[in-house]
Each structure stands twice: as C-alpha cells, then as structure tokens.
Design goal:
Blueprint (H helix, E strand, L loop, with lengths): L1 E5 L6 H9 L2 E5 L1 H20 L23 H11 L4 E4 L2 H16 L7 H12 L3 E2 L2 E3 L8 H11 L4 E4 L2 E4 H7 L11 H6 L3 H31 L9 H7 L2 H14 L4 H5 L9 H4 L1 H23 L7 E3 L4 E3 L7 H29 L1 H4 L16 H17 L21 H33 L5 H11 L12 H12 L2 H5 L10
Parallel strand pairs: 1-2
Antiparallel strand pairs: 3-5, 4-6, 6-7, 8-9
Helix pairs in contact: 1-4, 3-6, 4-5, 4-9, 9-11, 9-14, 9-15, 9-18, 10-11, 11-14, 14-15, 15-17, 15-18, 17-18, 18-20
C-alpha cells in the first residue's frame, strides 16, 4: 500500500494520481495536526461565547436564521448528514471514492474547517483498511458543496449506510464493529464541514484528467502508426513549421510524431505515392492534438489549485476567532475544467475516427478496401468504422458544456449553481467511449502497416509486436469482438504509450 503524507500545502498533482491509481494510507504532517487542533479550539471558544454563528448554532441555508440550542448542536449536525443522503444511481468507482476521501482530509488539514482530529483520523482509518463508502453517483449540483454524495460518505463514519470492504458491500456499522470502533458522533460544525466542499466533483474531474491524458498519449502513438500505414508525409512534422506557430503543445506533439516515424522503412515509400499533401487528419495532428495537450495542461492547473483548496463553509480563522461565511463550495472552476476535458476527449475521438475512415478508403489511403485482402468476400474494417462513427456522435452529445446549465435550489437562496459534479462524472464515460474508438484505429493501423510490410521504427515496432502477440492479422474476416476487446485492454492499460516509451508524456510532468 502506498504511503502518502498530507501537509497544509498539497500542490503536487502526482500525489492525487497515486490516490486514484492505487490504495493509499495517509499520514498527517505535524503542522497539519496542529492546524486541525487550533481550528477546533476556535470553534469551542465560539460555542462558549454563545453568540449565533452560522453553521455552528444555527440552521442551514434558508433556515440559517433559526437558532439552535446548545443541547441540540450534535443532533443538528447528525440531522444534516442523514437528511442529505438522497443520492441515486450507480455507486461511484472505488478509486474515485478513495481520491475524494484523501482530498477531504487534505482540505481539513489546512485548519480552517473546525473539525476534531478524530474526524480526520477516522477518514484515515477508512483509507488504510480500504473501507470505501458506497456513494451514489447522482444528486449534486456542484454548489454548497457536493452535498448528497458527501453525505453518503459521511454517513458511513456514523455507522449508517453501506461501504465496500474486502470486495463486498456491507453495512457501515459492521466494519466499525470489526475494528472495535464506535461510530462517530458529530459535534458542532462537523457535519457541515463534511458535506460542504468540492471533493467529489474534483475527484471525478481529476480522474477524468488522468484518463484523458492517457488517451491523448495513446492517440499520438496510434496516430503515428496510422501515418505510417497511409504513407503520410514526414514534412508536416518539421520543427520549423511548428516553431512559427508558438503553441507549446503543438511543438511538443510534432516533435514526438517525428521521433516516432523518422528512419522507418515507410519514409522512403511515402515519397513514391504521388500524394504531395495529406488529409488534415494526418497533416494537422500536431495542431489538433497539441491544442488538446495545452487544454489538458490548463485543466491540470485548475484542478491542482482546487485539490489544494479549502472549499467548505463557513471557514474558521483561528487567529482572530472569526467564522466567515462565503462561497468557496461553488465548484465553477471544476465545472470549467470538466468542460475543457470533455472537449478534448471529443476531439481526440473525432480525429481518430477520421484516421480510421481514411485507412478504409482505398482512393485516399492506397490500402486495400477496408484493409482486407479479399474485398467483397470479406468486409474487413467496414463496421469498425461505422461503430466508431456512432461513438463519436455519442461523445459529441456529451461534450455540450455542463457549466452553462443552471437549476436554482433551496428556495432560490442557492440560485446559481455550477453543475460541476455530473459535468465531471460524464468525462469518465466519454473516455470509456474514446478507448473503443482508439482500439479500432490501433487494430486498423497495425493491419495497414502489415499490408505494406515495411520496417517500423523501434518505438512503433514495439507497439506492433505487443499487439500481434495477442491479435493475429485481420486481413480476412473472423469474429471481430475478441480482437477489439484485447486492443481496448491495451489502450485502457496505457500499454501503447509504454511500449513506445511515452508513459511519462504528461503536460504537468
């Protein structure tokens, strides 16, 4: 199990990538522990003072003018959590839940939330023993925090609801008993601190970012193989062209393409095809995929800041014993980042489908019709392109910005919300669809290269060898599904860029 340390400064995106990719145990720095304790002492001093302070001894939202007696403060926080467990739909993926818990711990560690150290320690215990609350995917508008999903997470701390433990879904109360623990009883401010925050939408967006970058890197390698298969011209990747554009991503992607194809046996033959200009899907790959890389970098910057933020409300300033109410729970930055990711994923898939279509068209590619040795008797990649087109259309529908939608809530007190949570959630579904498109192109591109029979560069030859180890030639028809499933697995596991030596080609590395 990976051990990570959470401090009051958590601006390293690689930490969150670890939390997403593998089980983690979290330790708090001594400074984080002191910050949490100081924040809690401030809350206790404010309670002793007896003045009404939002979120501590008042109702919430539209009910914030209602005072709550001191003997009811614990019940107030428990009621808040339990009343908000209204999520619906399938459970969030385990790795997203794990990441969200780590993000919540990091937010509390900064010392502006007023929770007891015991709350954070229970979250740490959940991570250490791989106890993951079952959190329904639907129900948050991404403002006032991810209330419903975080309520389901928090209810598990109280021994309510269900958790995933050792591969099974079990009652939350049972895991407390297993470890000899008493379910937590919340005290003043703690329920609100647990529910307010953007940790679910941020975890979903970070997951989308990590997966989108893996897909982009895969698309670059697969695009290079396709360039070889259609005997594309190397000239379009000349560094002098891209230096004049001054776009960082374009320059980096062009250099990568040139490295992947220069010196192969396909290069000399590309000058013999008679085509002096390639279609845009080949010629403009650095411009398109480079722009995608730049947008991923922008999304990464937004989400790095959000993961390092305090996003609950109200916030406790221990040095002045003030509790200030604002709107850091509003997830507009996450919503924008998610919309950026959706656009990137859609474009990667659209370009991949165009390259696939190019390879199946003999008038453009110079390859046999639909990449089959016996067209007519065999249909080859005809339906693979049709399926890819269907999936491109699906992702185009999903790419509509979620952030421009707004449905006011809480009797119009919360009248402008971000819709970040479902905006971020749809990104993972879009990546799943994109993986199918890239898998089809990978199969076709390798098949196209085999039709020519020229030598690939060592990087692309490693990709060829990897695929052919499990997928034989596809120049005559057979049951297509197993080949596509295997190619999709290679895409999903990032095996394609790893084989080509690009496993660390992230814009934030």
């Amino acid at each position: 199990m990976k051990q990570i340390i959470i401090d009051i400064d958590m601006s390293d995106l690689s930490v969150w990538a670890e939390c997403y990719s593998t089980p983690v145990a979290v330790q708090l720095s001594s400074l984080a522990i002191e910050s949490i304790k100081s924040s809690r002492h401030a809350i206790e001093a404010i309670i002793a003072d007896g003045k009404p302070v939002y979120g501590i001894n008042t109702g919430f939202g539209k009910l914030s003018n209602q005072s709550v007696q001191s003997e009811d403060l614990c019940r107030l926080q428990e009621n808040l959590v339990l009343s908000h467990t209204v999520g619906a739909g399938e459970p969030l993926p385990t790795n997203v839940v794990r990441l969200a818990i780590a993000l919540k711990i990091a937010s509390f560690a900064k010392g502006f939330s007023g929770v007891r150290l015991e709350i954070v320690e229970r979250l740490q215990l959940f991570l250490e023993h791989e106890i993951y609350p079952v959190i329904p995917e639907k129900g948050s508008v991404g403002a006032s925090g991810d209330l419903a999903p975080l309520a389901h997470m928090s209810a598990a701390l109280l021994g309510v609801g269900e958790v995933e433990f050792q591969g099974r879904i079990v009652p939350a109360e049972s895991v407390h008993k297993k470890f000899g623990l008493t379910p937590l009883q919340l005290e003043a401010k703690e329920g609100l601190a647990l529910l307010n925050g953007t940790q679910i939408s941020t975890a979903l967006a970070l997951a989308g970012l990590f997966e989108a970058n893996r897909s982009l890197t895969t698309a670059i390698v697969v695009g290079a193989v396709t360039t070889e298969a259609v005997l594309g011209l190397e000239e379009a990747f000349d560094s002098r062209i891209h230096a004049l554009r001054r776009q960082k991503g374009q320059i980096e992607v062009a250099a990568t393409f040139k490295k992947l194809i220069t010196g192969s046996g396909f290069r000399a033959h590309s000058f013999e095809t008679g085509r002096r200009q390639d279609p845009y899907s080949i010629r403009c790959q650095p411009q398109v995929l480079g722009a995608c890389r730049d947008l991923l970098s922008q999304a990464a910057e937004l989400l790095t800041r959000e993961a390092d933020a305090v996003t609950d409300n109200p916030l406790v300033f221990a040095d002045t014993l003030e509790v200030l109410s604002g709107g850091n729970f509003h997830a507009e930055p996450v919503a924008f980042a998610a919309d950026i990711l959706a656009i990137v994923i859609c474009e990667i898939g659209s370009l991949s489908e165009r390259r696939l279509a190019l390879m199946t068209d003999p008038s453009m590619s110079g390859l046999p019709p639909f990449l089959t040795s016996e067209p007519g008797l065999n249909s080859g990649f005809m339906s693979a392109q049709i399926a890819a087109a269907a999936m491109v259309a699906e992702n185009r529908q999903r790419a509509h910005p979620a952030s421009v939608d707004n449905v006011p809530t809480v009797a119009n007190l919360e009248d402008f919300v971000s819709m970040a949570t479902h905006g971020a959630r749809r990104v993972l579904a879009m990546v799943d669809t994109l993986d199918n498109i890239l898998a089809s192109e990978l199969l076709a591109a390798i098949e196209g290269c085999d039709h020519h029979g020229h030598a690939l560069t060592p990087e692309l030859d490693a990709v060829h060898t990897m695929l052919r180890a499990s997928v034989p030639r596809m120049n005559v028809d057979r049951y297509f599904a197993p080949a596509h499933k295997q190619a999709r697995l290679l895409v999903r596991q990032a095996s394609v860029p790893k084989a080509a030596g690009l496993e660390h080609f992230s814009p934030w590395n």
